[in-house]
Amino acid sequence: MDIFQALILGLVQGPTEFIPISSSAHLIIVPWLFGWPDPGLAFNVALHLGTLAALLIFFAGDWVRLFRAGIASIAERKIGDDVDRRLAWLIVIGCIPGAIVGALAESKIEELFHRPNAGHNAGAMIAMGVIIALLGAVLFVAERIAKHLRGMESLSLKDAVLIGISQALAIFPGVSRSGATITAGLFLNLTRETAARYSFLLSAPIIAGAGAKSIFGLMRGGFPSSEWIFFGVGFLAALLSGYWGVKYLLRFLQRNSTDVFVYYRWLLAALVIVLALARR
Fold first, then answer.
1. What is the mean pLDDT of residues 36-50?
2. Torsion region of 183: left, alpha or beta (phi above 0 gives left; psi -120 to 50 gives alpha)
């Protein structure tokens, strides 16, 4: 890896983590297209920490308010009609399916699609292309069924569980964490902006947990000093482009549908499948 590659991958990771087009798929596809070396665990940690930092900064006021509300609900043993108290616990509940699936299956999925220092399996790349296209089709249907009526204050336990289960599916490259959760939110008749906002709040604990797990693995294996520069470049690129991605998407969904992302997914899927077949 060189500085240019680190910068490009960071700029790719940031917005694709939040725009419903799958960051994990793009981090596999971009090096595969250009014949770049696998960036390695340390660099992937940097990218995820960058997007986590973008979330923490963008929603700083929300996090402080939700944390205080959650603590107050524990101290008083009551949630009541407080929107923030309910939302704080709905975020915790919504994270449980993804945390369980990630702990049980993440390493196996990672080995299938993204083994370090090994070429990508053509069958796995075709499967990922199919997943990208299918999720696009589901989002296309959701956009047309959704009534776009419900705001954040209407979120229920059922919504948190269903959206949490959909987030767990993002363990497969091509699904997209935001894509799955926003799609589920639309099926539940949330407004597009509400679905996206809850999706982003829900993703932060999962990204933090995955990052902590990766850092622990990194500490056991040792951190190469030569990678610090790439770590820093990737982190900053992912942070800045991720912050822009969150801001752009929330503003975009106030007035527009998700169709542009559906069409992008279908074009990307076609490209991946055609190239995978050609390179077999």
1. 86
2. alpha
Could you tell me if residue 233 is inside a domain?
no
- pLDDT tens track for 152-186: 999 999 999 999 999 999 888 899 999 999 999 99
**Residue 21, domain member (yes or no):** no
- What residues does 150 pair with on adjacent strands? 190
**Region of 35 on the Ramachandran plot (φ > 0 left; ψ -120 to 50 alpha; else beta):** left
Sign of CA dihedral 60, 252, 159, 170: negative
Q: Which amino acid is located at 275 in the chain?
A: L
The total domain count for the chain is 1
- Provide DSSP, 121-132: PHHHHHHHHHHH
**Residue 86 belongs to what domain range?**
62-110+131-227+248-278
- Residues 119-160 have pLDDT tens digits of 567 888 999 999 999 999 999 999 999 999 999 999 999 999
Q: What is the DSSP letter of 150?
A: B
**185 lies in some domain:** yes
261: Cα within 13 Å, side-chain hemisphere: 30
**Tokens representing residue 123 in the block:** 């069958």
Does 139 fall in a domain?
yes
Full-model pTM: 0.92
Q: Answer whether residue 117 shows pLDDT above 60.
A: no
